[in-house]
């Protein structure tokens, strides 16, 4: 026995969500059918709208349905001399939530990963070079993840900055606030010692 | 900073799925936007189709888009003398997967729960009484969950069967196959002893 065709299709559809397998998809499908048909209809509509209309910002490559995202469209922030390079829109949100950084962004939408066939063109390097060529950017802050790929990407972009005479800086790596030294990995501790500052 | 309106709506929409909070919804939204727009569009369509067309089977109350579900529409199974009563379509699927039971079903779509305001009419008792009145059912197998509400529901239906001179039976409770006695709760063990059979 299987579920009726429309229910089977719904379960198969829900499995395209990350982290959702057969059982979770069944639970979601029946939850929506039993308790939240309105929510499901509105989700159906938002999925359609987002997939049809969300494109990349022409300037920083983040996701947006407009030509430019809110930050790039801002006359002050969009032409700011400091540019922060991040891997994803979620990283951009995390930085925005600190309300510390007031410059513009460039979103790679990934990182260099030759093994997966992701080269410089896939992470917007031609667009970034264009932006640097204009001469408005004075400093590029590299906020890619502290992983092997993130570090390689940061180094690649630092070289690009050198070519265009733009200062490149990397966010600090060290012991996170609230962390306990006892539980912090050796790599992070090594970075924390190497990056020590005079008090 | 927030995401653009369409992305925020998509994230809010995904949060109506059970077990999905803000962070998971963000992860799902960006995963779909970056890697699976086609899958998302097809999910949007299946959600719409299922919510608009899936209703309850006129006979057993399970979910289906037809007038009768596959089992009720089957000329042999749909008029079978043995009826199995379950709480949900998922329970029905679990029993069908054993391929042991060849009779018909009645799906309560819940269980009696006075504290949540769920009474006999909400779990289809009038429809079940109607079905029993027709005289075609000889035995009702009560396969509700072994919880307080499931047991109460089973007792309620057993009384209804008595009124209509139909045999009511309850599935056996005991030690599950592959279980180890050491780790089985006292309640289950008590049931296993009380329900012992002569060899």
TrEMBL record, chains A, B:
GO terms for biological process: DNA recombination; DNA repair. It comes from the Bacteria. Signal peptide: none annotated. CDD domains: TOPRIM_recR. The keyword Repeat does not apply. One of its GO terms (molecular function) is DNA binding. A zinc finger (C4-type) spans 57-72. PANTHER family: RECOMBINATION PROTEIN RECR. NCBIfam families: recR (TIGR00615). This is Recombination protein RecR. It comes from Neptunicella marina. The lineage of its organism: Bacteria, Pseudomonadati, Pseudomonadota, Gammaproteobacteria, Alteromonadales. The gene is recR.
């Amino acid at each position: 026995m299987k579920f009726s065709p429309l229910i089977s299709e719904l379960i198969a559809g829900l499995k395209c969500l990350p982290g959702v397998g057969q059982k979770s998809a069944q639970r979601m499908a029946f939850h929506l059918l039993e308790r939240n048909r309105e929510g499901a209809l509105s989700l159906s509509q938002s999925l359609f709208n987002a997939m049809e209309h969300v494109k990349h910002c022409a300037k920083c490559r983040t996701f947006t349905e407009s030509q430019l995202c809110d930050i790039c469209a801002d006359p002050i922030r969009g032409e700011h001399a400091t540019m922060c390079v991040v891997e994803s829109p979620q990283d951009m949100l995390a930085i925005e939530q600190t309300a510390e950084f007031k410059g513009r962004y460039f979103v790679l939408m990934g990182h260099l990963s030759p093994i997966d066939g992701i080269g410089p063109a896939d992470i917007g390097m031609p667009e970034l070079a264009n932006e640097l060529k204009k001469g408005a950017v004075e400093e590029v802050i590299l906020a890619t993840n502290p992983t092997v790929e993130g570090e390689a990407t940061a180094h690649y972009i630092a070289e690009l900055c050198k070519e265009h005479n733009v200062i490149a800086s990397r966010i600090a790596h060290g012991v996170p606030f609230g962390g306990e030294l006892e539980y912090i990995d050796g790599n992070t501790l090594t970075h924390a010692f190497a990056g020590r500052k005079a008090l």
